[in-house]
Structures are given as C-alpha cells and as structure tokens.
From TrEMBL:
It comes from the Bacteria. Gene3D superfamilies: Dihydrodipicolinate Reductase, domain 2, NAD(P)-binding Rossmann-like Domain. Keywords: Oxidoreductase. The keyword Oxidoreductase applies. It comes from Dyadobacter fermentans (strain ATCC 700827 / DSM 18053 / CIP 107007 / KCTC 52180 / NS114). This is Oxidoreductase domain protein. It holds the Pfam family GFO_IDH_MocA. Residues 25-148 form the Gfo/Idh/MocA-like oxidoreductase N-terminal domain. GO terms for molecular function: nucleotide binding; oxidoreductase activity. Residues 160-274 form the GFO/IDH/MocA-like oxidoreductase domain.
Length: 349
C-alpha cells in the first residue's frame, strides 16, 4: 500500500484505492526529434512502463500520435491544460523533452500535479533553475530523474568501475570529446533564450566522460568558445574547449562542437590507459584497456533500459541512477565554463 501511495501521490483518493501497478504510464511532453525517433520507439520495448499519454502544442501531432500509438483522447494534453494531468491516474510519470529553457516550468508543473518526473539533459540553463526543480520535486514527494541514458549503459559503467577499483592506479589525464555536425540553421540549439549552445547539449557528454572516468567533481575550469559559422552561431557557441582540474590532481581536456563529428574518451592512469570510441552514442559504445580488456557489451535499447531502471527505482522507492542532483552537478560546471569564457581566466567551481 505504501508503494501505491507513492505512485498515486497526486490524488489522495486514488492513493487509497489503487492497486500497485506492474507498468507505469509515461506521458511525453514535447514531440520533437528525441521523443519521436528514440523515446516513443523505446517505449514499445520497455517492461516496466508504456507510452500512456502525450503533451503537445501541435494538434496535428496529437492526431498522428493518437493513431500510431493508440493513445486515448483523455490522455492527450496541450501546454495550457497540462496541469489537469494531476487528475489522470493513467499517468504516473511526466517525461519533459522540450528545449532546455522550458524544462524548469514543466518539471515544476509536473511535480505540482503529483507526477514523478523524467527530464532531458541539459537539466536547465542555470544552477538556480536546477535547484528550483529539485526543490519542487522534493516538496511534492515525487522523484526526478535526468535522461542521462549513458549512465544506464554497461559500457559506460565499465569505465566508471575502473576508476572506482583504481585498476590502473590514479587517473592522470583525460581527453574527452563529443560533437556532431549540425546542418540546421534556425533551431533552438542556436538560440540563447531557449537554452541553446553546444556546451549544454553535446558538452555535457564530454563533461560526463571526464566526471565519470575520475569519479570526482572538478574544482576548476578554464574554457574557450569559438565558431566557424558566425552567421548561424550568433548568440551561442558552436564549439567549446574546456580544461578541468580534479581534487586528485587529474586533469581533463574536453571538446564539444556542433561543427565537428567526434566522440571519444581517453583516460591515462598511473599504470595504464583506457579508450572508448564512441563514448556517448545511442548504441555501440565500446573500448579497450592497456591490459587487453575489451569493453563491448551489446545492449538492445539504451533508452528502454534507462526508463525501465528509473521506473523500478520509483516502484521500489530506491535511488535513481541519475537524479536531479546529478543534472545539477553538470550545470554547476557549465555555469563556471561560461564564466571562464567571459573572463578569460580559470574559474573555481
Ligand atoms: P526538437 O527541436 O526536435 O524538439 C523540441 C520539441 O519542443 C518540439 O516538439 C517542439 O514543438 C517543442 N517546443 C515547444 N515550444 C518550443 C519552442 N518555443 N521552441 C522550440 N521547440 C518548442 O528537440 P529535441 O532534439 O527533441 O530535444 C529536446 C530535448 O531532448 C532537449 O533537452 C535535448 O537536449 C534532449 N535530447 C536528448 C538526447 C539524449 O540523447 N538524451 C538526444 C536528443 C535530444
């Protein structure tokens, strides 16, 4: 009963009567590329959750999704009537897949509606936003997971374990890169007001590579922003290079770009090395180590695994792999990176 009460905390009446579910209902908010191409297909493979509802500002999308995924009319919302989701027992989790500047508003509204929340990365444009989101979820007694799919990938977990076990001694130097060529010329990723810029977007993968490979939080950063397409990247950076220093003395050189295809991680330890390439793809992340160990665990769907594991944490009231606090850790560094770009100096974190 306690588990059911947690699941249905949005509605005390339902909490008292509803049986414990074996599959949680997810409503996707924002039906753009990631929802359409990755999350909705993954939700056809999940075992602990299913696509129960949608929230969209485009009526034509509502019609198309309703037919394609057999979504009942009562589980379809727009941005205006979204708060009525509080009364809908089919929806246990709201998954926010909007441009980053909108994450805070919809996470807070979902929490107030008593729904657990999944939120895409980057968590939000500022530390203040992230803290408000964490606080709203805490006070409404709902869980908040960030869509860090890679942390659910056994290939990424394999290099995290090398640091934890100190298999090759201390980490000395890291090179971490994540970027792709974005041919779009008028997208939110190029607009400051919508939370664009490569640092929050692909940059968090380069940053996660360094944070997860050391298992430490950086203490200082120096960064440089640049663009080769100033006509497109007028408000935000196309490329960011940043160097991190960790408490143990480990250092990381990280690069991220909307103009360059790159995706790798190299870690040099006291007594060996590890390489991943790619390091943050949807599938096929793989690597090798100086002692001949190969990292190459096949995985059906990273997103399905992520959502199932996060749903299990909700059902069992256990810790999430990547809670809001983990999203905040990245944004703290991202804020310091922008401060460093503005001042041209190293910034303490
Ligand atoms: P997208 O531009 O394809 O979709 C954005 C959606 O938001 C669209 O449905 C759009 O209609 C809606 N929207 C509502 N108000 C908007 C506004 N004012 N401006 C622009 N769009 C508006 O973006 P996407 O690539 O699907 O990214 C959405 C979120 O998912 C972002 O946070 C992004 O970083 C994240 N994402 C994560 C991954 C991952 O691997 N975890 C991959 C891609 C995207």
């Amino acid at each position: 009963m306690a588990g059911a009460a947690t699941l249905f905390s949005g509605n005390p009446l339902l909490a008292a009567t509803a049986p414990k579910k074996d599959k949680l209902g997810i409503a996707l908010v924002g039906l753009g590329y990631y929802s359409t191409d990755l999350l909705a297909p993954a939700l056809q493979q999940t075992e602990k959750c299913y696509l129960a509802g949608i929230v969209t500002g485009t009526p034509a999308k509502a019609e198309a999704w309703k037919t394609k995924y057999n979504i009942p009319e009562k589980n379809i919302y727009n941005y205006q009537n979204f708060d009525q989701i509080a009364k809908n027992p089919d929806i246990d989790i709201v998954y926010v897949v909007l441009p980053p500047s909108m994450h805070r508003e919809f996470v807070v509204r979902a929490a107030k509606a008593g729904k657990h929340v999944f939120c895409e990365k980057p968590m939000a444009p500022s530390v203040a936003d992230c803290e408000a989101m964490i606080s709203a979820c805490k006070s409404n007694k709902v869980k908040l997971a960030i869509g860090y799919r890679c942390q659910h990938d056994p290939n990424i977990q394999a290099y995290m374990k090398v640091a934890k076990d100190q298999k090759f001694g201390k980490v000395k130097m890291i090179n971490s890169a994540a970027g792709y060529f974005d041919a779009r010329t008028d997208h939110w990723k190029q607009k400051k007001s919508l939370g664009g810029g490569v640092m929050g977007d692909m940059g968090v993968y380069a940053l996660q590579g360094a944070r997860l490979a050391t298992g430490e939080e950086p203490v200082s950063v120096i960064a440089q922003a640049s663009t080769t397409r100033p006509d497109i990247y007028k408000e935000v950076e196309e490329t960011m290079m940043f160097m991190l220093e960790f408490p143990s003395g480990a250092r990381a050189a990280c690069q991220t770009s909307f103009g360059i295809n790159m995706n790798y991680l190299q870690v040099n330890y006291e007594k060996g090395w590890l390489k991943m390439e790619p390091q943050s793809a949807y599938n096929g992340n793989k690597g090798s180590m100086s002692d001949g160990t190969i990292i190459n665990f096949p995985i059906k769907s990273q997103q399905a695994k992520q959502m199932d594991e996060d749903c299990l944490a909700i059902m069992n009231n256990t810790d999430l792999i990547a809670p809001g606090e983990e999203g905040l850790r990245d944004i703290r560094v991202v804020e310091a990176i922008y401060k460093s770009v503005a001042s041209g100096k190293a910034v303490k974190i």
